[in-house]
């Protein structure tokens, strides 16, 4: 394993342990469902066991008979009580379950039981009897009754089917071609912290404790659904036990629980079971891909076509559309892409770590490996031949692209040159050895963000920002940035996040948080520095008359480039004040004038990726070794190396941890993770962690993360490229490549399980 | 989860009495009063509303020393039913005499679960069939006559041996495979007194009554497991699964070999992850007896063991996988240094 706290290389910050590390590993971090609230009542949902149809009748009498039950709410009580959720903003879905007798998916909430205890609410929810008018549902691809729609027509979220040149002509002329189909399965985030809502009313004000990646967006959306002023709503989510996108959009549960709490006149806590989570929360929908690629005999790709299909719910055109990234990945001579969505009787999918890239780059990189084999080229050299500093769609330069440096450093650490390229040629006793590699890529985004800083004369700093510590280390990184700019030690900095009453920050999605929060902190610190500097140059003292531009803050002092210095405390005396407060608003280049007010309105205006004069992406290269038993064919991954370049690395420990977690998830998505759907009923079958497998410690052996130095000040003022979603892109393709190398079998449909490898 | 009452008797007779009497032929899993030991399966299934006891009778305080003892004598091995899996897996006599038993325990569940789970409870663990565990699906085992959702559903983990048109749910235990291979017996205390039963008779194939999982009545308590002495130091349990640890077997094999050079003097074979009950492959044992053990013989034994197997849409792979697992287990057991 690589060192948990890598020594910082060029343009990298110190590996400070996370501020909340001890709280987390000792179980003392108070998660939202731990909030100590007096006089709590407990809620449990009863959910649909059919995927399509209507409620004929719902019998709640057996539930009301359970001792301790306070109330049972169904569509009879709730219809018309709430505004419908607005899909596409902070809401997971437009489906408003207790407003209607229509059933649109398996697991749709049908009733909410409120009781004195958690157990009573559960028992009562299980006692509810529903008489359905069931209809035959359409579960997924190939099912009768689904509706396929072009993404660009169905969704505002999907801008265009990118294209360049004349693909058909180039493909027809190419001497070497591949034409293959790939697929990825349904997956669920399954964060260990279960989903929960605790709703507390105080007069006409509402506080909701719930794990959230978007407290400001939720505040506005929840107020909308409850027909309240946003100022009267507060979302608190200080600690989160795993999110991965699942806690980004608010589900319909939150407003229903809040409404019920008001109705029963008590605070209500609803912790959703693991089994119900998979039906009431979002998920990564299954995807299909058709890739055609043509190359000349030297390995230059002359034609690339990527068509993708994604499943979504009936009402909501959720789309990830990763062709924007795959279409720009290499120096293709021509590009043709198309994305379609397939509407089925399912709940609405949602963001899951690298939503577009995980499935689409899997397909592309598996195809790249197939093409390398067809060309009889080393897969690394094949990427080198097609590497580019200018993307092929808009012919715009990358702000930086260190892909081949990543490949070279990872290949060296992995020992790629020891690989015998012949299929099935490497073996250790009864185990076949395979080695493979693939590219990781993720768009570099940044969004408007605000921050409040309060610095006192003793050097104590309170940093307030409505971002979210979802496990990335952003709370620690924000402190590091302030520590660097204000010259104060980490242990004097207190960071508050995860509360909608703080200055707003963007949704913690799209890997924007480090870049956005740090850019806002830089701006706020610059303002504080300016106030201090202008005070010290005009007051009597060692810095009187100094040019402010020559001043800096270091080790609790204000210093000038000519060696003079003054303790920060004295600068406060010069200012005749005890505290300096600054509130800063950051908006990225190219943001609209309304960007910050939109942020207050719960919307994050993201910039970066393919937008702008330069395109902005982070890159990496991953190499894996697999071992496959010659007889029973189980696949194990004893070794994985990833090298990544992502601009400024704020903290080598948290960066390595994010990338490591991503790579492990990549292994998981290659070999394990799949939510099985019973096609007869459009229902999920494996609803808990017994049957939804993820790797255990014993599955992860030697894992190495290499942080490749890269400087890119085009991306944002912090020079940071978000890397939280980079590590799990490409991993599954690298494993598919290694499995092919070991066995000669090309697996195109994930996950790769032993039954597909049995001879 | 439903409200239940809880009792903690201090000896076997009190526990049996507490269980009371039940209607004829009522399986223990449907009785009003049910026993709990480690609780790793019972509490899980109570939360899922699959097990619905009105009264739970906790066996952990029973005073009979036989229930918590591990003893070895000339007759063989005595394992008390309340011994925790973690304690048996490391017992040096068990390691020495029956490596296959230790393997089967070590490779089961997780360390935390093995610290809690009792040996008796482990034997009686219920199937993990997804359709059985989620009460909104039709299931003949939960509700006789309701129909089996797994037959034409997602059945990758289901059994290819011992199934019926009513049920193909796999028996997922590991320990049981070692016991059935070694001709173990279970000692059972009941209202009528104590008796021994061949372990092979404990579990019932589903046939057309999948709700009847064992030969036990609701007030019967497994007191101990007896494994007869035998030349089984050359024995092991091979478990093939989707991940390296903490997963049920897709296929497994318990193998014990008594070798005379390359020739098999005696063989014991049981198959896990592929059958509805603990599964002894006697025909394969007989085929090997007196034969030189090599790859060809191992393959022939595997073909014999799976001759009656039948697969469905997603579990058909278990037939070739189960065969490969047995071949691998036979050859690896042969290679053991003893």
TrEMBL record, chain A:
Residues of the Aldehyde oxidase/xanthine dehydrogenase a/b hammerhead domain: 26-136
InterPro entries reported for this sequence: Ald_Oxase/Xan_DH_a/b, Ald_Oxase/Xan_DH_a/b_sf, Ald_Oxase/xanthine_DH-like, AldOxase/xan_DH_MoCoBD1, AldOxase/xan_DH_MoCoBD2, AldOxase/xan_DH_Mopterin-bd_sf
Record has Oxidoreductase as a keyword: yes
Keywords: Molybdenum, Oxidoreductase
Pfam families: Ald_Xan_dh_C (PF01315), MoCoBD_1 (PF02738), MoCoBD_2 (PF20256)
Family annotation (SUPFAM superfamilies): CO dehydrogenase molybdoprotein N-domain-like (SSF54665), Molybdenum cofactor-binding domain (SSF56003)
GO molecular function, one term: oxidoreductase activity
Superkingdom to which the source organism belongs: Bacteria
Oxidoreductase in keyword set: yes
PANTHER family the record matches: ALDEHYDE OXIDASE 1-RELATED, XANTHINE DEHYDROGENASE
Protein name: Xanthine dehydrogenase
Native organism: Tianweitania populi
UniProtKB/TrEMBL annotation, chain B:
InterPro entries in the record: CO_DH_flav_C (IPR005107), CO_DH_flav_C_dom_sf (IPR036683), Diverse_Substr_Oxidored (IPR051312), FAD-bd_PCMH (IPR016166), FAD-bd_PCMH-like_sf (IPR036318), FAD-bd_PCMH_sub1 (IPR016167), FAD-bd_PCMH_sub2 (IPR016169), Mopterin_DH_FAD-bd (IPR002346)
Keyword Flavoprotein part of the UniProt annotation: yes
Domain FAD-binding PCMH-type: 1-232
A Pfam cross-reference name: CO_deh_flav_C
Keyword annotations from UniProtKB, A to Z: FAD, Flavoprotein
Gene Ontology MF terms in the entry: FAD binding; oxidoreductase activity
Naturally occurring in which organism (per UniProt): Tianweitania populi
The UniProt record lists the keyword Heme: no
PANTHER family tied to this protein: OXIDOREDUCTASE, XANTHINE DEHYDROGENASE SUBUNIT C-RELATED
Name assigned to this protein: FAD-binding PCMH-type domain-containing protein
PROSITE patterns to which the protein is assigned, alphabetical: FAD_PCMH
